[in-house]
Amino acid sequence: MLVAGCKKEDPTPPKPTVFSLNSLKVNGTNQGFNYDNFNLNPVIDLSFSAKIDPASVPKGIQLSHSSGSSIPLKVVYQSNATDLTVQPESPLVALERYTLLISPDLKSTAGGTFQVPITVKLRTGLDSTAKFPTISDDSLLTLVQRKTFGYFWEFGHPVSGLARERNTSGDVVTSGGSGFGIMAIPVAVHRNFITRSQGLERIQKIVNFLGTKAQRFHGAFPHWLHGSTGEVVPFSPKDNGADLVETSFLMQGLLAARQYFNGNDPAEKALRDDINALWKAVEWDWFRQNGQNVLYWHWSPDYGWEINQKISGWNESLITYVLAAASPTHTIPKVVYDEGWTRNGGFRNGNTYQGITLPLGPDYGGPLFLAHYSFLGLNPRQLKDGYTDYFTQNRNHTLINYRYCKENPKHFYGYSGRCWGLTASDIPDGYTASSPTNDRGVIAPTAALASFPYTPDESMEALKFYYYVLGDKIWGEYGFHDAFSLDQPWFATSYLAIDQGPIILMIENQRSGLVWDLLMSCPEVKSGLSKLGLQ
Question: Which parts of the sequence belong to the SbsA Ig-like domain (predicted)?
Answer without folding.
Answer: 34-112
